[in-house]
Amino acid sequence: MQQQTRQRASSLSRRSILRLLSGFMLTMSLDGCVQSAPSTSATPTPRPAGSVLYLYRGHKQRVTAVAWAPDSTYIASGSLDKTVQVWAANPSDHFHPFIYRGHAAGVNALDWSPDSQRVVSGASDNTVQIWDALTGKHVTICRGHTEPVMTVAWSHDGKSIASGSADGTVRLWDAVTGKLQYVYRGHTDSVNSVCWSPDSQRLVSGSSDTTVQVLDATTGKHIFTYRGHSSTVSSVSWSPDGTRIASGSWDKTVQVWDAATGKVAYIYDGYNVQAARTNDTLGVLPDLVFVAAWSHNGKRIAAVTQVYCGDNCGVVVTWDADTGRNVQFYIDTPVFALAWSPDDTRFVTSTDVTTQGTGSNANGSDPEAGSYVQITRA
Q: How many domains, in total, are found in the chain?
């Protein structure tokens, strides 16, 4: 039945999800609706890291991508339900969420324009789509990828959009017209993450071929290949000062290195959650790394992974970006996407608690089950 189907779909591990996204993704078509939990984000009382400030329940299937608008007003979330939804970062604003339904398959990635007016989204329908964030007015559809679009990133100068795909290419598009500017074919496997340098002159891409590659963003010319990882590179993030890159991988590490030379600053890893509770220098990265994200002020790096209790729980961990010393972490339900708030005080994350079983009744259903987007204290 329908509930059992949803439970079977959500029982897929994040490892399986990324593998599915790297090929031809299973998608389903259910319309979204909005239901919000009471918000405590207005309280002046400081709360510990990981405290949930707000839950957004508008999606019907797993949320795969989240992004905070640069002006901090709105959050966009993309899902396997084929929608992108834009909603108020401050729940007290009572903004009625806008739902964009332009994709024909599950949404894998999204990003905001620097002026917070538009959103770009990539999906398993092989398209990159640009549209007005608050009206849904369609700007353009970028066609050219031959397999699911895994990642999109808007340049800081607002002029271009980069996309990476399971077809192994990085493509650059004009952000106004959608015209293809060039195709980069330096990878031999799925491109899972792309990120712009702060000056919009370079691009970095991470791939399932285990490499991270830096290229000239204006010409598409290859500059440098980083080969420090031994497994799929799932996430790349450029430091705000433009000097370093953080890359997260299925080899269970986040590696921080010089963006020009590839010289490693440090490798962040760790496998003992209990020890880290009493000694925060030990670190916590028990399993595959799904997200590595630099804070806007450059002081911290956040990573998303999972712990050995299985796919039913995960870890969000942050540490000092310069030294690698662990700052804080919390164990949560499975986390599939993460983004910093513009002021670096909060995270927006996606989670799925269908497999948790908390509150399950005699029929095995869970009244709290669902795919949520949540704002938490960073």
A: 1
